[in-house]
Amino acid sequence: MLSNYADNLVIQEGLLGSDLLGISDLHQGVVPALEIGVAILGSLAFAAWVPVVRGLSQAQTEIARPYGSVGLN
Questions:
Q1: Of residues 40 and 17, which shows the higher confidence score?
Q2: Which DSSP string corresponds to 22-69?
Q3: What's the pTM?
Q4: Which long-range contacts (C-beta less than 8 Å, at least 24 apart) are formed by 63-72?
């Protein structure tokens, strides 16, 4: 029963991709372009998030100093 599962073309296509099976896909360029777009947007979001985190960290350090905590500059 499990051997039939491994021979199923739908499973092989999902695991190996349609290129390895010789199955042509009409929308081959859509997924890589979408992945590149998501990667670029993720990088931009990370770049925008870094100043927020640094600013919050600096604000917490400044609040903690009057209470006797030693902060690093």
A1: 40
A2: T---TTTTHHHHHHHHHHHHHHHHHHHHHHHHHHHHHHHHHHHGGGTP
A3: 0.46
A4: none
